[in-house]
Amino acid sequence: MSRAVPGRDGRVDYTPAVGDVVVLRRAHACGADHMAVTAVGLDVRLACSGCGARVVLSRERLRGRMRDLAGSVAELRTKS
Predict the structure, then answer these.
(1) What is the pTM of this model?
(2) Contact 21, 73 (CB under 8 A)
(3) What CA–CA distance (Å, rounded) separates 12 from 62?
(4) CATH class name, domain 4-73
(5) What are the residue ranges spanned by the domains of the chain?
(6) CA–CA separation, 36 and 18 (whole Å)
(7) Which helix (H) or strand (E) holds 79?
């Protein structure tokens, strides 16, 4: 079973973990829509895959802005 499951409210039920790569509903200002989770606590710290900018979102806000879980950083590196 995946750790990112669509909920009834249109949001994704997701438990963040360091190293995950998430796909957001809207792209970052640089045009990239993939972000890597770099730190997890009360808030979730993300790093943009395009420009490297750091963004901090609450867990609830991440649930609303997330489209899908693309995998982990290690998995994506081995595919390339």
Answers:
(1) 0.86
(2) yes
(3) 9
(4) mainly beta
(5) 4-73
(6) 8
(7) helix 73-79
